[in-house]
Specification:
With about 450 residues, the chain is of the alpha/beta class. Helix content is about 40%, strand content about 15%. The strands form five sheets. Strands 4-14-13-12-9-5-8 form a seven-stranded mixed β-sheet, with helices on both faces. Strand 10 and strand 11 form a beta hairpin. Helix 4 crosses helix 10.
């Protein structure tokens, strides 16, 4: 049952918490005149000064000047520990020397070669080697593109029209589902929306629509929806039911592939029919890919009669191929990835322990190196559980962290990069404890 929103004391217009938020916003504006001027200038030529919606927040977003390893500097000269890492894509940190060298070599050899190149097959080999369910793979320029291709392929292979998705899921700019509804700018596929982590509801919908169901598209952990892990039993139910009714199971691992060497699916022991990846696999440059069973992906083999067409000018561009290959081979070993996710688990547990010890109404969800801070105390298993969280408290947390030199997403997302170590994690923990001590009196 969908929850209704209620107004908490902290969300009232004249509450002490609301007044504290206003003071924090005013202090932010005073500290960042150059970012304010940049925003004003950009607003003359871009709607709201923005070309990427997630980066906006009122009164204006920070404009960044440069980054190095796990550090950012804005145009007002402030330094930040980068705990956002380009919304999970920046797993290598900023300006990794190995990746920069690979990009320079690719530039020297020719930016666009108008043909096949040696790098694309090598990157494909690395991906297939890491994720066994990807027997064959094709590249795109974003996770959005890759998910669109996977959906279209599932409809062609099955001859069916419906796609089951989940409330709170984000599969790209035209594949977003919140509040139990499809975004008004979504592509017009025939979507069925179920409740995440609700096996019974999903079973009912799959069986009801089985004759027309082409695929179930699911993130093993809701990413933009708040880093809500999928229950293993729930995800296994989707695997069993799709096999039973002849639909395809598509895992969107654009974000979750970094949670284990073989993606989140390897930790769960689940083999989807198709997998979508992106983000860091391009070494920090634009990238997406979809792959899976050879009999399905083989439909794109251009040497076959009646092959499906999949064009894309920059699908195999040399810069992304070089950067992605350098990162996977030179930096993201199984040991490095395991250590990164262990650091994330430790940090998340420490943050939750600090909130719990102070009886502070916040908690952190996630797995490994991905987590999200929520201004709510309940256990979060789906989008409904986040209804009614205290937006004023969450906003205050964001601005207080910026003042402390901690950069994370306005929505509370934290994504660790390889350069984030114990020193940076210690600074985050100290900042959070100061936040608790400073702001807990507002909640009385």
């Amino acid at each position: 049952m969908k929850k209704t929103r209620s107004t908490k004391l902290g969300q009232m217009e004249n509450s002490p918490l609301a007044l504290a938020v206003e003071e924090a916003v005013q202090a932010f504006a005073r500290r960042n005149p150059a970012s304010a001027a940049q925003f004003s200038k950009a607003s003359n030529v871009m709607p709201g000064g923005n070309t990427r919606s997630v980066l906006f927040y009122a009164p204006f977003p920070l404009a960044m000047e440069r980054g190095d390893k796990a550090t950012l500097w804005d145009i007002d000269g402030h330094r930040y520990d980068d705990f956002l890492a380009e919304y999970t894509a920046g797993i290598y940190g900023h300006s990794d020397d190995l990746i920069l060298d690979a990009i320079r070599r690719a530039l020297n050899d020719g930016l666009n070669l108008s043909g096949h190149n040696r790098l694309e097959a090598e990157l494909a080999f690395e991906i297939c080697n890491r994720i066994p369910s990807i027997e064959l793979v094709r590249f795109t320029n974003s996770g959005t593109e890759a998910n669109l291709m996977a959906i279209a392929l599932s409809k062609l292979v099955t001859g069916r029209s419906k796609i089951l998705v989940f409330d709170g899921a984000y599969h790209g700019s035209v594949l977003s589902f919140t509040g139990g509804a499809s975004s008004p700018i979504n592509v017009p596929h025939d979507f069925i929306i179920s409740c995440y982590n609700d096996g019974e509801a999903s079973i009912e919908l799959i069986r009801k629509h089985q004759a027309d169901l082409a695929a179930v598209l699911v993130e093993p952990m809701l990413g933009a929806g708040g880093c809500v892990p999928g229950d293993p039993e729930f995800l296994w139910t989707l695997r069993r039911l799709t096999e039973e009714v002849g639909a395809l199971l598509i895992f969107d691992e654009v974000m979750t592939s970094r949670l284990a060497f073989g993606g989140r699916q390897s930790s769960l022991g689940i083999k989807p029919d198709l997998t979508v990846i992106g983000k860091y696999f391009g070494g920090g440059l634009s990238f997406g890919a979809f792959g899976g069973r050879a009999d399905i992906m083989g439909r794109f083999d251009p040497s076959r009669s009646g092959a499906l067409s999949h064009p894309g000018t920059f699908n195999n561009n040399t810069l992304t191929m070089a950067a992605g290959l350098a990162g996977l081979r030179g930096r993201l070993s199984q040991q490095a990835l395991t250590a990164l996710n262990e650091r994330g688990d430790t940090l998340r547990n420490e943050l939750n322990a600090a909130f719990c010890a102070a009886s502070f109404p916040m908690n952190v969800t996630g797995v490994g190196s991905l987590m999200n801070v929520h201004a709510i105390s309940v256990t979060v298993r789906n989008a409904d559980d986040l209804v009614g969280q205290d937006e004023n408290l969450k906003r205050l947390f964001f601005f207080d962290m910026l003042e402390e030199g901690i950069y994370l997403a306005r929505r509370g997302l934290i994504a660790l990069s390889l350069p984030i170590g114990n020193v940076e994690a210690g600074r985050l923990m100290a900042a959070v404890k100061r936040f608790i001590d400073r702001r807990k009196k507002l909640l009385v």
